[in-house]
Amino acid sequence: MDYKDTLNLPSTSFSMRAKLVSKEPERLKKWEEMDLYNFIQKKMEGADDFILHDGPPYANGDIHLGTAMNKILKDFIVKYKTMRGYNSPYIPGWDTHGLPIEQKVMTNLGKKAKEKSKDEIRKLCREYASKFVKLQREQFKRLGVRGDWEHPYLTYNTKYEANVLRVLGGLVEKGNVYRNKKPIYWCTSCETALAEAEVEYQDDESYSIYVKFQDKEDPSKYYIIWTTTPWTLPANVAIALHPAYEYAEVKVGEEKWIMAKDLVKNVMEKAGIENYEVIEVKKGNEYEGKKALHPFMDRDSLIVNALYVDLETGSGCVHTAPGHGADDYITGLKYGLPILAPVDEQGNFTAEAGKDLEGLFVFKGNEVVNEKLKKSGHLVAFDTFKHSYPHCWRCHKPIIFRATEQWFISIDKNDLRKRTLEAIKSTKWFPKWGETRIFSMISDRPDWCISRQRSWGIPIPAVKCKKCGKVHLTKEIVDFYADKVEEFGADIWFEWKPKELLPPDFKCDECGGNDFELLEDILDVWIDSGSSYKAVVQENPALRFPADVYIEGSDQHRGWFNSSLTLSVGNEGIAPFKAVITHGYVNDEKGHKMSKSMRNTVAPQKINERYGADILRLWVASTNYQEDVRASDSIIKQQTENYKKIRNTLRYLIGNLEGFDADKVVPFEDMMELDKWAMIKINELVKAVTYRMENYEFYRMFQTVMKFLITDMSAFYLDILKDRLYCEGKNSIERRSAQTVLLKLLEVITKILTPILTFTSEEVYEYFPEKMRKYETVQLEKWPEYDENIMDLELLEKYERINKLREDVLKALEMARNEKKIGNPLDANVKIKIKDEKIMGRSENIIDGKYSRYIHCIRSGTL
After folding, report:
1. What is the full DSSP assignment across 443-471?
2. N or C: where does the chain have the smaller number of CB atoms within 10 Å of the terminal CB?
3. Model pTM?
């Protein structure tokens, strides 16, 4: 007889090798055949809902690791909430308008771009966006993300566009939308206005110059101004002084220079002047209203007072050009100054700047202006320095402040800012710092510039009266156009005649004229995506407003979170979400930003081809996503080891449950003591991971599971169990008691890993005893529930002591092996002297290894 035949050895066809790369596409095919998403939605009809609203990625290229992480995190939440009994629909979406797409199209067209009409460019943009929607959709599906992929929301769909316009119309009706000429961020490369959310800061080298402006009444006096943007001097109309600061008149040769008293020494050092004398000191308000002569333009420069003037740098006399600065603009309004901005859309000076500057790009104008000042004797000092300067976040090139006619949303009209800040406080933020960050952004933000000078997007339906020149944007016009857009699409603004796009009998309320021209500004793309609270959440019957949660990257505090919040509060009076989750960026293994030029990117498609999507999903679950995370091929490859540990544990459980009748489970009260302990630990695991999942702490959930599997199960319980599983009778109470635990463990681990290892859990589910498989997919199974009745604190404390004792014995056995006193631990006969009588729950102070059940386990290295 072969003794092997007398053992109950594990038996299963569940492979040790996962073969994820080949098996996952097969699983996806099965899910498509059963129409998994709609199948689950139908089953969950009537349940309480939990709505996660998807923020739309741009449809302009392959997905990257950051977008993959974002979608996988959302999938964790949706699948977990479904298993908790919620109807949790997931409608994915794409942002299909905007400059990134238009730039790609224009680049592809090359020189032909200038020959194309706006209508032609828009058609090409639509085709381009559509191509990448299809590509990204398949890439997201490959990750195992469950959603209504056949009916996503696309911001270029006619119904969506119409609802964006209705959101705009609501704010127009409330008076929050206005048009004005004021300085805004302008990208000369993209040739469009930018909002605050579209600006990033990088270090650049700038000029630092001190310039003399001669007093108009006293030719011997000069105001010494300081600026880091010499190119804006052609637009100078004023010099700002702080009303309360002391200003010195400093004798330099035959001239008297006026500057802040506290900055005299600094200015003189910059100018290289040693011989000077302070002859008089006055307050800044004493100079208000005086005039100086512009050094090279034929105009005066008014001396004004402003509280933003500081004494940290410069001269205390601030060059003021209302057409090129936010503070300057406010001062200009106060003093009725002209808003000059002699710069065109491409950043070139116009004739208004003078013949020697006309046609020059503004930054090249710096050198020309400096040379002009030097020749005329007005340049006091010149230097360069590095500082943080605004750049366009799309083309990453430096931008300028330029006054143009633009459309704005007033952030303070109707207490919009105040109400938005209140909505932030009533929202849950994960992590908590997200609340502080967005609160600060809303508190300090200027009015929102919502118009763009591009082709691809939703037109702002404003018209200009040809008779009197008045510009009209009313709710009546917006709603009329929105209804037409829902039927025909936004392109009609560039195809139809004005009368076809305006309400019947619409007339100018200024002059009564009825002949209009269409303005061609388009909406900021953040209006598009921010309006999804209405265009998607309110309009889709499967969803509910407000959504339960939004989850996006940290950049969306200035982007989608911000725009959604502002538009929803402005129109609905409440935030569009109950909770907001923020995740960080994905950097390389050294913490550097990923970029193709640095060749440090990790494409999710490559990970799928090399390891499988479940390995990528496991990496997402293992990272603290609320911070910036690091990724590389080697970092992700490390997750294969964790995956193997999980898979081998599941295989061990399945193999030892072969032939076990699920109806023959042993009640908790009748179990062996060690099995009771294991059931309690499993129950505690359920409580711990449920808490982590409820708080979206996926990495802590993952750590808890791995520690449990490795420490409590593999290294302790499952190792001890082998004797009973292999040697006891198939139907003995000892073996069935152990198998009852294994069945519970298989069920719990499979279920709690379903949102994470979505492919593997489905495979494992097929090996569940038939009576336990209630559904066609594990994704419909209920999340394990914590059982308050399964608890024995005394038993837990006892096994904690045993575990500590075991650690000491294993150390002694290892020492004996190293000294070659024993080979296998089973060769040892262990005797333990117990100082604490209670440690083993008995009175003996000497326990012989031959007779103690505990010590038998210790000897074999298994207790």
Report:
1. HH---EE-EE-SSSS-B---EEETTT--E
2. N
3. 0.85
